[in-house]
């Protein structure tokens, strides 16, 4: 059991306590344990080869604060919209579902710290493999529509979001996030109650979650209960997860020399282009002189995947993979490539994606103190026999 | 009235979380007792157990200070240093 978790998603990561176990939480199949309280669970790598949509029961789970509700009544649940608005609102789920135009998007939710365990030198924080990501079909209403219903006053600068989770002690900051008003009023962000055709799983933010396509998961507030329009940049004790945490060096590479700190930082935002091989895992043995179909996924911030290239010779030569169905620009994009290995021995598979902005995955990972935003080319050592 | 209450109860989505079994590594160092009192108030021990091995004493001590300064943990500077010393040895 333990060994499966270790080799499945965390290949090459060492933990002080040895391999992490698979555990079962409500509404979830066996997932890899990151933390028990509050729950933090990682998706096993094999799931990403099952389907381009990540099943609800396999979708990763991430909380920051342990004082969150374990019982939520959809009848009495309300979403409050307040602050710099003409008409403050208190919306029931039924009102949200019936009174506005519904929208749907397939979008990747990737944790800022996905793959943090590979940071070198290592950094504190959840020691994640590559399983803190998932791709789902979200249905809800545009955030913009809700804000327009309340009537945003001129002078609005940001919109803050709060969910039902709370800190254990009042001295700990609450988990709240902010989006700039232009972003909040853009077509993309939405308030979703449905994930892959079902109610949101409890541990993914039932009954309502903020969806911010193209942005890291830290903005995707769970159990969303309060939206406040403010006329200044969010600050203060409860702005901690905007102003102190989830920040990157404020320079072009969003990186610093390994082991150093940044003078100036800015909030983490959009997903860099990334790709994975899902059909082969580290140390697999593949046959020589036989055609094999390699398969995987690529994604970015919504600019759109342009190319996926695969190397079977440690990056010396690359060949173009074929892109699969397009489920929308914020979705995982499948890719495939038929190859045949000409000689036996060890080999290293690599995959590299580029997007329509001209962004391309770098060969070598850069470094930042939070271990955020990893997106270097992935290598999968295998044996040909 | 009881019936109505039962109905509302039934409508609520409820989950039951699995039991917490993770424990801090036992040590004779004074920081161990302090850590068991302080570090499990806000989260489970696996927050600590699954960090990278071989983090240094100064790294661990800084992490403990982060709990105090950023997250409002209530211990003295002296206690923080003692916990840091324990964590560096135990992990």
How would you describe the overall organization of this protein?
The complex is a heterodimer of chains A (385) and B (91). Chain A has 385 residues and is mainly beta. Helix content of chain A is 9%, strand content 34%. Chain A is built from six helices and 26 strands. Chain A has helices at 2-9, 47-50, 93-98, 143-150, 181-184, 240-243; strands at 22-24, 30-35, 40-42, 61-62, 71-72, 78-83, 89-92, 103-110, 133-142, 158-163, 176-180, 190-195, 198-199, 209-211, 224-230, 247-249, 265-267, 274-277, 285-286, 291-299, 305-311, 319-320, 322-323, 333-340, 345-355, 378-384. In chain A, strands 7-6-15-10-11 form a five-stranded mixed beta sheet. In chain A, strands 8, 9, 12, 13 and 14 form a five-stranded antiparallel beta sheet that branches. Chain A is globular. The relative contact order of chain A is 0.15. Chain B has 91 residues and is mostly helical. Chain B is 55% helix and 2% strand. In chain B, α2 (30-38) crosses α5 (77-90) and α4 (57-69) packs across α5. Chain B is globular, with a radius of gyration of 19 Å. Chain B starts with a helix and ends with a helix. The model of chain B has no long low-confidence stretch (mean pLDDT 92). Chain A binds chain B through residues 14-17, 20, 23-27, 33-39, 65-66, 70-76, 117, 122, 124, 126-127, 167-173, 199, 202-203, 206-207, 240, 244-245, and chain B through 8, 11-18, 20-22, 41-44, 46-53, 55, 59, 63, 66, 70-74, 91.
């Amino acid at each position: 059991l333990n060994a499966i978790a270790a080799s499945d998603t965390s290949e090459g990561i060492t933990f002080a306590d040895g391999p992490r176990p698979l555990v079962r939480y409500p509404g979830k199949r066996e997932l890899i344990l990151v933390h028990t309280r509050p729950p933090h669970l990682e998706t096993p790598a094999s799931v990403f080869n099952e389907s381009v949509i990540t099943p609800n029961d396999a979708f990763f789970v991430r909380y920051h604060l342990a004082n969150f509700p374990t019982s939520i009544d959809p009848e009495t649940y309300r979403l409050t919209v307040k602050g710099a608005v003409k008409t403050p609102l208190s919306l029931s789920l039924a009102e949200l579902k019936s009174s506005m135009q519904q929208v749907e998007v397939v979008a990747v939710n990737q944790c800022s710290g996905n793959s943090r365990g590979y940071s070198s030198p290592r950094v504190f924080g959840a020691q994640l493999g590559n399983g803190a990501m998932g791709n789902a079909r979200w249905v809800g209403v545009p955030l913009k529509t809700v804000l327009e219903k309340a009537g945003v006053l001129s002078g609005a600068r940001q919109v803050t979001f709060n969910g039902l989770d709370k800190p254990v002690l009042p001295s700990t900051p609450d988990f709240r996030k902010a989006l700039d008003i232009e972003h909040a009023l853009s077509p993309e962000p939405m308030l979703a109650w449905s994930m892959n055709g079902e109610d949101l799983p409890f541990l993914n933010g039932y009954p309502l979650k903020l969806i911010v396509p193209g942005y890291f998961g830290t903005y995707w507030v769970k159990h969303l209960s309060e939206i406040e329009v403010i006329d200044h940049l969010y600050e203060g004790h409860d702005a901690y997860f905007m102003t102190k945490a989830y920040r990157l060096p404020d320079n072009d590479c969003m990186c610093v020399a390994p082991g150093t700190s940044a003078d100036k930082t800015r909030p983490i935002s959009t997903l860099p282009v990334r790709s994975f091989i899902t059909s082969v895992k580290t140390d697999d043995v593949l046959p020589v002189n036989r055609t094999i179909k390699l398969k995987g996924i690529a994604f970015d911030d919504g600019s759109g995947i342009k190319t996926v290239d695969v190397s079977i010779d440690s990056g010396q030569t690359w060949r173009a993979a074929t892109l699969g169905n397009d489920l929308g620009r914020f979705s995982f994009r499948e890719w495939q490539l038929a190859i045949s290995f000409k000689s036996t021995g060890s080999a290293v598979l690599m995959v590299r994606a580029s997007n329509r902005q001209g962004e391309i995955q770098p060969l070598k990972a850069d470094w930042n103190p939070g271990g955020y935003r990893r997106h270097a080319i992935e290598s999968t050592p295998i044996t040909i026999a | 009235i009881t019936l109505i209450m039962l109905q509302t109860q039934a409508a609520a989505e409820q989950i039951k979380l699995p039991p917490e079994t993770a424990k801090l590594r036992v040590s004779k160092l004074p920081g161990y007792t302090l850590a068991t009192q302080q570090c499990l108030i806000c989260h489970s021990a696996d927050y600590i157990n699954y960090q990278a091995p071989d983090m240094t004493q100064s790294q661990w001590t800084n992490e403990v200070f982060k709990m105090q300064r950023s997250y409002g943990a209530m211990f003295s500077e002296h206690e923080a240093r003692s916990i840091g010393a324990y964590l560096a040895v135990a992990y």
